[in-house]
From TrEMBL, chain A:
Name the UniProt record assigns to this protein: Hydrogenase-4 component E
Ranges annotated as spanning the membrane: 6-25, 32-52, 58-78, 99-118, 130-147, 154-174, 180-198
A Gene Ontology cellular-component term: plasma membrane
Keyword terms, alphabetized: Cell membrane, Membrane, Transmembrane, Transmembrane helix
Organism field: Siculibacillus lacustris
Cellular localization per UniProt: Cell membrane
Record flagged with keyword Ribonucleoprotein: no
Broad class of the protein's primary localization: membrane
Membrane topology classification: Multi-pass membrane protein
Amino acid sequence: MDRFALDAAHMLAGGMVLVSFMLLYQNRMFGLLNVYALHAVVLSLSVAWQAHVQDAPHLWVTATIAVVLKAIVIPVALRRMVIRLGVHRTIETVGGIGPTMLMGIGLVALSMVVMLHAAADADPIAREDLALALSVILLGLLMMVTRHNAVSQIVGFMSLENGLILAATGARGMPLVVEISIAFSVLVAFIVIGVFLFRIRERFDSVDTQAIDDYRGGRE
Amino acid sequence: MPIAWVLVAVAALFAIAALAPMTLSRRRAEAGTLIYGACAAACTLILVIALAALLGAVDAGGTLVLPLGLPWLGARFRIDALAAVFLVLVDLGGVAASLYAIGYGRHESAPGRVLPFYPAFLAGMNLVVVAADAFSFLVAWEFMSLTSWAMVMAHHHDAENRRAGYVYLVMASFGTLSLLLAFGLLAGAQGDYAFAAMRGAAHADWVAGTVLGLMLLGAGSKAGLVPLHVWLPLAHPAAPSHVSALMSGVMTKVAIYGFVRVVFDLAGPPAWWWSVVVLTLGSITAVLGVLHAVMQRDLKRLLAYSTVENVGIVFIGLGLALAFKANAMAGPAALALTAALFHAFNHSLFKSILFFGAGAVLTATGKRDIEALGGLIRRMPHVAYAFLGGCLAIAALPPLNGFVSEWMILQAILLSPALPQWGLKFLVPAAGAMLAFAAALAGACFVRAFGITFLGRPRSPEAAGAQDGDRWSTGVMKTLLGLCLVVGILPNFVIDALHPVSDLLVGGAMPAQSLLPHLSIVPISESRSSYSGLLVFLFILISTRLAIRVIHDFASRRVRRAPAWDCGWPDPNPATQYTADSFAQPLRRVFGPMAFRSRIEATMPPPGDPSPARLVLSLRDLVWDTFYAPIAGIVLAIAEKLNHLQFLTIRSYLSLVFAALVGLLLMVAVWA
């Protein structure tokens, strides 16, 4: 049973890393949102599995929040936003799929090495979960860095946050209140960023952050 | 427990500071009297306790631990002999400045910018002295720096004061950083920040040596050691005069306390080369300080530079004490250390008088430039005579106190042939020569300061219409002058009071002085040298009396008033008098090109043009040019380069954060 629990947890966490890679190369808006929803679903599965394995009922609450908020509410809201913003037909030019993917692979390797080094005497289930969670976080950051479109940057941020939740649930005994507050802070961030997006569009007729930088001009 | 009472008084000072803003809505004079009076009372309490502890009347031993500060350490406070000496020094200065300020503070244009900080400043200085762990020491030290900075900035409308405040803040932060590193080294890997633990631990040679260097940077920058003195002549004059007196007379001594505490008490046995560093820096400081002082036209800045000189003299004494201590010569080490501490005490007395006098002149005339003063001895006789007394004391003339301490340092220098190291055998007499040179220049400096300011004819209408100082200020000045005289005539008791300090720090003491015939002091042995302030005083008194008798009996008693003879051209214009710059000219001629890179530019109008010829004299501070200007240039250049980081795109910032994170993770992966 233990062996199986470990493997399943790894598979789900590994699944999140895989979906993060899928996020990295999506260049269509709707595709991106769909994959993000998938990301959240895998997260909730992973959390649910942890709830089952660790016998921690409060993690079920976290899993439910993940499904309802991140897999349904936020993607639907983002979808409507994208339509209202009129960017649903935009195809983003990402700096080149190949190099980005290579960088992503490098980051995953880095987080593995770091975790194996830094937490050599920790519980293996926690350690490898942490390594995978760190990969998800780094991939989310990488996505925020490589994208121009503000909506994609938000999606990068959200996936980064999913990685945080994954790390938090992997560690035994994290109180529920922490997870709930993380979830709500993300929701608040989402609302704030949404408002900002519309304000940006009003001003610059675009949600490409490059436009803002161009507009500012001056010293580069 | 005495230490508890000291802390109560310090808490009272903090309470006064907190209450000060509330009193400001009342009438100004009353608010000032109330606050300064309360400060004087609190300082008197600490002064009495410290004196009792020093003279052994109460047992001050024992450490008080309060549950403040770092949770695992608490805040420790303790009064030992060294702390008691400096508490006396701080609070004597505090009482004097507070009483002086009762009168002086009435002329303050913005009391709200001084009153709340003044008690807090006093409290900070007291806390530095009684702190018995590194954390409380550093917090109190920084507190002292910041409150005094606030008072330097009291008149911030003046651009010069703002610059002074900026330089002071930079130097003070730098000094605290050095102290922090020094204590970090002393605490070692276990990180026990209590002084008792540092004292007990054995320190490696390189640790102790580095600590010495860091203390010279940290405490030296606060005390005004060359080349870290640049802030001092800017900041001390910028503050209101009673605060200038405290900063110059007392705060520099607190810095010296920090140096003595760490280097003599905590860092373990010294190596002989330490004294080389301290002696060299002390000699350079003494000479450069007084050379600058001679050139100044601003009265308060002149006094500030003279503080630099006196700090140099104290450091010469401390360097000698280190040299003797390193060679296990307890007697001479005790002599040098006692002399250094004695000089620190004396300097706090006479520098307070002088700054109080400068403050009185400033309020009476609104001028600090001595070229615009003159003739004040008739307008302000009380201030003038007290200032004259302070000048005599600081110029080290017997029978006043300045002479005794400098004489004792010279006596210690005369013992240098007994030192085994050849380097020291050569260096110590050189330091002695520098000390004698500095003392001579100090004489010239104060003849100039007093003569140009108080003698002759007024050079400006303000000086002609000046009023004498109020009763509080002149009373305090005279009392301090009386103390200078008493200490100068009866140094025995001061030396004996310093006995426990030298016992504590160098493991020996000077022979007991109190019961010697004619109240003379004998630093080493009767056959070598002795000095009796009382006999000298009586001799001066009697011979002066005799001279006056002789002159009055054999010369005319009649007072004649006639125009001063000036080469046959009686010119009523006071600008024809001897000026401060003319007084300094011979010294400038000799040392100017070397020490100041002085230049004189004469611009003559073309023939036929009736406009006046001009002579422009420019002096440069070489220390600033060689050390500070390049550093400031480098910092500016780097800042200019980094400036474009302020104008990156959001994505670039994210990338930077990302790169930094990945870099750190790589470091963990490689080295962890």
